Amino acid sequence: MLTLETTRGKVLIFPTQAQLFEKAADLLTEAVSKAVNERGRAAVALAGGDTPRGLYSLLSREPYVSAVPWKRTLFFWGDERAVPPDDPQSNYRMAVDALLSRVPVPPENVFRIRAEAENLDAAASEYEQLLLRMLPHNPNGVPVFDLILLGMGADGHTASLFPGSPALQERNRFVVATCAPKINQKRITLTYPVLNSARRLMFLVSGDAKADALAKAVTGPYNPEDTPAQGIRADGGEVLWLADAEAGKLLLNRLPEKPA
User: Fold this and answer.
1) Average pLDDT over residues 99-105
2) Closest CA to 174 of 184, 153, 159, 185
């Protein structure tokens, strides 16, 4: 593993995807255990996508089934597609199938986004109110997660914050309805204010197709309108980028290396 220090967070690059998943699982276990020990429970926002799915599959097996304090961990989502919860495209369904149905998480600890609702703005407001009720707040009144998992698209989007989206400008609301522009798919997403208030944000990035986007997100000129992942900064917290060698190959040529 190589550790690359940047102004946009710490980048950890692993030779293989399997090693990426193992480190991510260890970091998740550490984060939720620390939160439970200090505050009695942990709050985690899950991500959709193929790379997070690999992490969830690993977490559903030992030693993590025994090591993670599942019964004291609350699970939320960073974004959701406007589909029913049993739809194959649902981020909720993916996480349930790969992880939550396989570990001892009480149903009352799972809080999905009701993005199948006819009125997505109302559903977003409902989820925002849920976060305000269930999570501690920072001094600015923003809900605080212990850990937020994030993926990143080849276009630099994260959660459902897409290039050029009006959601990128949102500073007051914590959850909004939005749209994936290229496929015109409606979604609900958390916004920068709540994402950046987390104690830890952890990007999971794998594959050659993400190499350009990762290099741009971490070392490119700052322009979150074009590369929304750049807007993640964790005010008072920590941003980690976990990548496999294929996704991180361009960074290895651009940044000073620091063996871990």
Assistant:
1) 99
2) 159
Amino acid letter, residue 137: H
Q: Checking DSSP bridges between strand 147-150 and strand 9-14, what pairing results, if any?
A: unpaired
SS3 80: strand
| 61 HSE (CA, 13 A, CB side) | 6
Exposed/middle/buried for 58, CB within 10 Å: 0-12, 13-18, 19+?
A: middle
Among 176, 128, 150, 131, smallest CA distance to 228 is for 150
pLDDT value of residue 234: 83
User: How confident is the model at residue 257, as a pLDDT?
Assistant: 44
Print burial letters for 168-198: b (CB count within 10 Å at least 16), e (below 16).
Answer: bebeebbbbbbbbeeeeeebbbbbbbbbbbb
Which residues on neighbouring strands pair with residue 5, listed in sequence order? 10
pTM of this structure = 0.96
How many CB atoms lie under 10 A from the CB of residue 242? 26
Angle, CA 82 vertex, CA 117 and CA 42 arms, to 5°? 90
Reported as a single tens digit per residue, the pLDDT across 170-214 is 999 999 999 998 788 999 999 999 999 999 999 999 999 999 999
10 Å Cβ neighbour count for 232?
Answer: 24
Question: Residue 46 — φ and ψ, nearest 5°?
Answer: -90, 155
Q: Does residue 16 contact residue 247 with C-beta atoms inside 8 Å?
A: no
Tokens of 5: 């220090």
**Cα(144)–Cα(68) distance, integer angstroms:** 20
Write down the pLDDT at residue 254: 64
**Closest C-alpha to 152, from 85, 231, 98:** 231
Domains of the chain (ranges; CATH) run 2-254 (3.40.50.1360)
